[in-house]
Design brief:
The protein is mainly beta. Helix content is 3%, strand content 46%. Strands 2, 4, 5, 6, 9, 10 and 11 form a 7-stranded mixed sheet that branches. A 4-stranded antiparallel sheet has the order 1-3-8-7, with no helix packed on it.
Length: 128
């Protein structure tokens, strides 16, 4: 059972940056990884995902150009660098892992129902 732990969330001002980390209890080599977020009173939404190799990445339109996903398999970690944050980015951010073949189910995004393992989330609050 793969366990994922997110960290790096916190309070930041409008226009600021944060870097989230997702660290696994075991090797992440076999998995594609996604980041999702859920704001209070809203449905969970997909943010970004990265293929098993790291060569392919996908981003939601709302974060394209501001967020960057990356991975360091030697550290069993995936990162989400978030720049130019706005209050609309405030949410609990979750990382999730899936089988590599599921990453390719959808050309432009990753779906939460394709994910096999989830972390418990880290909160991000952007103040105006």
């Amino acid at each position: 059972q793969l366990q994922l732990v997110e960290s790096g969330g916190g309070l930041v001002q409008d226009g600021g940056s944060l870097k989230l980390s997702c660290t696994a209890s075991g090797s992440l080599d076999y998995y594609a990884i996604g980041w999702f977020r859920q704001a209070p009173g809203k449905e969970r939404e997909w943010v970004s995902c990265i293929s098993r190799s790291g060569v392919s990445t996908k981003y939601a339109d709302s974060v394209e150009g501001r967020f960057t996903i990356s991975r360091d398999d030697a550290k069993n970690s995936v990162y989400l660098q978030m720049n130019s944050l706005s209050p609309e980015d405030s949410a609990v951010y979750y990382c999730a892992a899936t089988q590599p073949r599921k990453y390719h189910n959808h050309p432009d995004n990753c779906r939460d129902h394709d994910m096999d393992y989830w972390g418990k989330g880290t909160p991000v609050t952007v103040s105006s």
